[in-house]
Design the sequence.
């Protein structure tokens, strides 16, 4: 008998980078499968292939022995494959009942009017099946994230879903709601549904799943019944063993005085009690999983988002919350995660982008006109220094540059402001290997000249290769700090997962965070 | 328990009612004659054209769009009404449906520009606003036109003391109230305005829904044009020019959001449509210089739009994803 779901040698690559490599997997019907892996391990690519969002380069999927090649999310729905995403697709201005029936209301016989009584009755029944005791006429905007998720589940069930994929369903739920969700997922399993459960919270996976699949670098690293996969083994499979030497040599040295200090910074629901210092000449890495609050922390430090309490100081100056200009003047720079949306004006030239922040220093004293000659000269220096490959810095729009050269342009823009503190959020995302090395070399050079660097990354290897010290964030809090001489991948990951790990005998290291 | 927060939220969600009551109290206390039955009748009669336009605008606003072309649509409707009545000399019961075809075509053009050619609604309808008036002027050579008694006589038809223009407005409002609250098309308009992408993902025919809003808005605008012609009896090249702004103001005063997805016809748009002539006649009763009327009027409109923005911001704040488990922070929901 064929298994319920079978992936056969699925391959998918994006511009030379293999997102999925020969993924073959068989999943029996009526079980809960826990799918785990680091960020970028290929989980979402695999699920997007399953959901008809992406087409694989090669390979096949079979459902109950029949070939399944969805062209669109609607195809997937028709096949009974449903997704419960973190970002929910509900209409907040409508009622619960309307959300369930929006794609086809029952009408009164012979009239164009909605049969409200029937809608209400069927909604009540559906809500009952997930033990959600709310009125069908309740507006979705008044519901908690947990309740909304249950409504998404009800929607999936109404469309006769046979396979339901949960993508990080518990991150925004309270522990009570999580418990309830687990009860419902188990109920679905008992009713014969197949569940794929993706989560970074390994405790949840352990509690719920019957089978485990571990992905790393687009490949299946291991799969089998939960009994064979204690959390330690999941983590070590996710981490892998190969250490790639992709980073410039980082020599040990003594850091200088404190430049940036973050003291007890909190913002309800976002981050709590963050204490952090960055010294002159130091590269501090911030590691955290998606949704750990790392980007939000960077935004708060740079004054883009509000903070309710705590203090941020740059050198001796206490920064007022929300004052971005003050920060830039005091010597802070922020290379954002969203290079295209927030870091660059894509249609403008390299030159125009380079002088965005410091334009005021390129103006004539009277009249405030730009000095094109000075701008060309200064940006040429940066282009040479950072080796930005462009056909002409004054004419080439940034959008025609490669990812690496775009990122160098963003960094160059801040170099012109001569920053003392540089915050980098995912500086090498979407940047190829060679340019990655160059970006890191630039950052190191900056640190050697006395700046302090705060580098956020979801690639642990990158931080281990480049940072002097790594702090770990998880669910809005700092959960660990590791100096360079005690980098231990398993321990750092464990802190990110908020997991206590007993290390294997050979390494001898042990303990919890 | 009544907290400050609750009062604040109430004020935010019941803006229309509070504004309406405030205008009532202010003008009523400053000029007691404002509260007379004849004054109310006048306001109701004056709101009829605007009310019909505002219903159309509400539909378009619900989908997250805007229509600036109503005034020219009404003018062109008048021009065709004139051609049919005065030149071809067909009876009124043929001329009116004939003139309404102008609105249908106008709305369809807007719909094509917005949904097929993907032109931003603001620009698309600004374009048809200028074009429509231009076409009308070419046809009429910008002369003023009088309508025959067969049309103007309709304004005096009354039932139970309610005159025909008011009856038409109330009928339109009742009809579209039911369309919006009780039909699939109506509910799907709210869905599209709230989250267009999710609507498409849920398999809704979003293009058709948005196009429907523009077509209906065009049709309602030309109906408003017919009502205005009936009431005024004659028209000049400035007929209905700028009225679309008052109609948008009425819809927003009535609680429709410029960001889409929020708005009701009854009581919202009705109250909004009443507020505009209420301010006008109230200012007259109070004896305010009539040249200041527009300034006062748009101060009120700005207030409504401002409140709309605050409401939007509040909603986004509520939707912002939290990272930490809420019960950890001790902030109960």
Sequence:
């Amino acid at each position: 008998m064929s298994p319920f779901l079978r992936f056969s040698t699925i391959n998918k690559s994006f511009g030379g980078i293999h997102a999925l490599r020969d993924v073959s997997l068989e999943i029996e019907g009526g079980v809960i499968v826990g799918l785990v892996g680091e960020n970028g391990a290929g989980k979402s690519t695999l699920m997007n292939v399953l959901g008809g969002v992406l087409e694989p380069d090669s390979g096949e999927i079979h459902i109950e022995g029949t070939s399944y090649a969805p062209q669109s999310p609607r195809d997937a729905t028709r096949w009974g494959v449903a997704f419960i995403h973190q970002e929910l697709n509900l209409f907040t201005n409508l009622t619960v009942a309307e959300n369930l029936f929006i794609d086809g209301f029952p009408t009164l016989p012979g009239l164009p009017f909605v049969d409200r009584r029937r809608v209400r009755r069927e909604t009540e029944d559906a809500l009952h099946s997930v033990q959600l005791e709310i009125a069908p006429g309740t507006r979705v905007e008044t519901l908690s994230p947990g309740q909304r998720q249950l409504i998404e589940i009800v929607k999936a069930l109404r469309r006769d879903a046979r396979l339901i994929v949960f993508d990080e369903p518990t991150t925004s739920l309270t522990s009570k709601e999580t418990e309830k969700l687990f009860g419902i997922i188990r109920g679905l399993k008992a009713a014969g549904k197949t569940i794929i459960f993706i989560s970074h919270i390994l405790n949840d996976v352990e509690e719920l799943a019957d089978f485990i699949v571990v992905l790393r670098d687009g490949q299946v690293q291991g799969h089998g019944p939960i009994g064979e996969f204690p959390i330690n083994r999941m983590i070590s499979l996710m981490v892998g063993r190969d250490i790639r030497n992709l980073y410039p040599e980082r020599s040990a040295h003594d850091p200088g005085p404190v430049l940036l200090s973050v003291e007890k910074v909190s913002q309800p629901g976002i981050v709590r009690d963050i204490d952090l210092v960055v010294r002159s000449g130091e590269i501090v890495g911030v590691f955290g999983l998606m949704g750990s609050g790392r980007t939000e922390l960077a935004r708060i430090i740079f004054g883009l988002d509000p903070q309710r309490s705590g203090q941020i100081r740059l050198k001796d100056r206490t920064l007022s919350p929300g004052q971005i200009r003050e920060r830039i003047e005091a010597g802070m720079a922020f290379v954002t995660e969203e290079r295209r949306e927030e870091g660059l004006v894509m249609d403008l030239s390299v030159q125009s982008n380079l002088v965005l922040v410091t334009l005021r220093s390129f103006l004539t004293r009277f009249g405030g006109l730009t000095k094109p000659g000075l701008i060309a000269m200064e940006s040429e220096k940066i282009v040479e220094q950072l080796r930005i490959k462009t056909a002409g810095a004054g004419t080439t729009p940034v959008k025609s540059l490669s990812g690496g050269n775009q990122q160098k342009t963003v960094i160059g823009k801040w170099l012109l402001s001569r920053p003392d503190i540089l915050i980098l959020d995912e500086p090498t995302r979407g940047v190829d290997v060679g340019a990655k090395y160059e970006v890191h070399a630039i950052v190191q050079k900056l640190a050697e000249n006395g700046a302090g660097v705060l580098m956020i990354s979801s690639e642990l290897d990158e931080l281990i290769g480049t940072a002097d010290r790594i702090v770990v964030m998880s669910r809005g809090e700092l959960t660990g700090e590791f100096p360079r001489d005690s980098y231990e991948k398993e321990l750092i990951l464990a802190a990110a997962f908020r997991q206590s790990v007993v290390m294997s005998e050979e390494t001898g290291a042990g303990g919890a965070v | 328990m009544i907290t400050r927060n609750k009062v604040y939220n109430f004020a935010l969600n019941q803006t229309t009612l509070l504004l309406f009551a405030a205008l009532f109290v202010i003008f009523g206390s400053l000029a007691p004659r404002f509260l007379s039955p004849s004054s109310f009748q006048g306001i109701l009669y004056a709101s009829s054209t605007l009310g019909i336009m505002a219903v159309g605008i509400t539909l378009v606003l619900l989908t997250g769009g805007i229509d600036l072309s109503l005034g020219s649509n009404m003018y062109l409707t008048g021009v065709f009404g004139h051609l049919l009545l005065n030149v071809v000399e067909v009876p009124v019961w043929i001329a009116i449906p004939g003139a309404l075809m102008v609105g249908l075509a106008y709305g369809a053009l807007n719909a094509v520009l917005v949904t097929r050619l993907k032109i931003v609604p603001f620009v698309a309808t600004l374009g048809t606003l200028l074009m429509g008036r231009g076409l009308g002027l070419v046809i009429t050579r910008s002369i003023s036109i009088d309508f025959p008694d067969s049309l103007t006589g309709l304004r005096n038809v009354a039932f139970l003391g309610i005159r025909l223009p008011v009856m038409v407005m109330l009928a339109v409002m009742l009809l579209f109230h039911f369309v919006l609250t009780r039909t699939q098309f109506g509910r799907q308009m709210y869905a599209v305005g709230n989250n267009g992408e999710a609507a498409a993902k849920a398999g809704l025919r979003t293009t058709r829904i948005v196009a429907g809003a523009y077509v209906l808005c065009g049709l309602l605008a030309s109906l408003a044009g017919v009502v205005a012609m009936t009431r005024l009896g004659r028209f000049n090249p400035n007929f209905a020019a700028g009225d679309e702004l008052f109609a948008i103001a009425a819809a927003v005063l009535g609680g429709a959001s410029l960001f889409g997805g929020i708005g009701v016809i009854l009581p919202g748009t009705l109250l909004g449509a009443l507020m505009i002539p209420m301010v006008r006649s109230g200012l007259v009763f109070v004896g305010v210089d009539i040249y200041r009327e527009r300034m006062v009027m748009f101060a009120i409109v700005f207030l409504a739009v401002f409140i709309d923005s605050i409401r939007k911001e509040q909603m986004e704040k509520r939707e912002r994803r939290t990272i930490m488990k809420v019960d950890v922070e001790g902030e109960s929901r």
Notes: The longest strand of chain A covers residues 17-27. Chain A has 17 helices and 20 strands.
